[in-house]
Amino acid sequence: MRDVLVTKATGTTGRYVVERLAERGASVKAASRNPSLVTQGNVVPILFDWENRSTWDAALDGTDAVYLVKPESPEVTQIIFDFVELAKSFGVIKIVLLSEIAAETRTDDADELKVERVVEQSGLTYTILRPNWFMQDLVDERFFGDLIRRDGVIVMTTGGAATAWIDARDIAAVAVEVLLGADYDKQALTLTGPDAFTLAQLTDRIAAVTGTVIQPVEETTQAAEERLRKSGASEGFIEYFSNIGRSIMKGDTASVADQVALITGREPRTLDAFLTEHAPLLQRVAGQ
C-alpha cells in the first residue's frame, strides 16, 4: 500500500487514527491546517485546508486510502464530491468515512446522508463509520466540558432515552483495521460503547467514579438551539447537535452494537474506564 491520508489529523478521532497507523508501520500523511501539531516521528505532516483547494493535490498524491472527516461547511456535500472526484484522479482506492450515528434515518436533505451518498456512488472501495456520541465530548469544551467544570451540569436533549457512548480511540481502532485491509467494503458500521446510559444514569456514573456531583438537565431542541446560537456556535454545528438530539429521543443511540469487538478483537472501553482516566478534567472549577 502507498500512503494513508488522514484528514483532520489533529481532531478527536484523527489523532488516534494517525497514532495507530504509525504503530502498525503504515506510511501516514497527517493532514491538518496546523501540521506543526503533528509530532509522530514516522508521520508526514501535510498542510491541508478544506477551504483552500490548492492544498488538496499534495495530500492526495501517492495516496491509496483516505480517512475522511467532513468539514463543517454549508457547502459540505459539494466539497466532499469535488474532493472524492480528485481523489479518484490521483488513484485513491479506498475511503473510510466518519459519519454520524443513525445517519440513514435522516431526511434526504441532511448533510450527513448526502455526504454518505457521495461516497457510496463514488465507485471506490468504501466503508462508512456511524459512531455514537464520543466519550471525549464529556471533557471537550465545545460540548459538555465547560458546562461540567463551570456549572456542574450536563444539558442534553434526550427525552429520557439512553446513549451508548463510545471512546474515540475505539472508533480509531476500527478505522485503522479497515484502512489496512479488513474487508468491510460497501458497509456502514454502527459503532457504540458496551453499555447505554440515560442522562440521569450518566451523571450518576460521573459522581460515582470521579466524586463530582453533576446535575442532569433535560433541554428541548428549541432551547438547545437558542443556547448554542447565543454562545456563538455555527449554524452547521447547531444543526448537527440538534440532529443528534432528535436521534437520541427516537432511541437511535440506545442500542449497543458489537462491531468494535468483531473488527478489532477487543471489547470497547467502558464509560467507567474513561471517567477514571479523565477524572481531573471532570472536576468543578474552584470558586464556581
Structure, described:
It is a single chain. The protein has 288 residues and is α/β, with parallel strands linked by helices. It has a domain at 3-131 and 167-191: Rossmann fold (3-Layer(aba) Sandwich), CATH 3.40.50.720. It is built from eleven helices and nine strands. The chain has helices at 14-23, 56-60, 76-89, 111-120, 145-151, 168-179, 199-210, 221-230, 235-250, 259-264, 271-277; strands spanning 3-6, 28-32, 43-47, 63-69, 94-98, 125-131, 153-156, 187-191, 215-218. It has a seven-stranded parallel sheet, sandwiched between helices. The chain has a two-stranded parallel ribbon with strand order 7-9. The longest helix is centred in the last third of the chain and has 16 residues, at 235-250. The chain starts with a strand and ends in an 11-residue tail after the last helix. 41% of the residues are buried.
Q: What tags apply to this protein structure?
A:
288 residues, Rossmann fold, globular, single chain, alpha/beta
Q: Any chance you could write out the topology, listing elements then pairs?
A:
Layout: E1 3-6, H1 14-23, E2 28-32, E3 43-47, H2 56-60, E4 63-69, H3 76-89, E5 94-98, H4 111-120, E6 125-131, H5 145-151, E7 153-156, H6 168-179, E8 187-191, H7 199-210, E9 215-218, H8 221-230, H9 235-250, H10 259-264, H11 271-277
Parallel strand pairs: 1-2, 1-4, 2-3, 4-5, 5-6, 6-8, 7-9
Helix pairs in contact: 1-6, 3-4, 7-11, 8-9
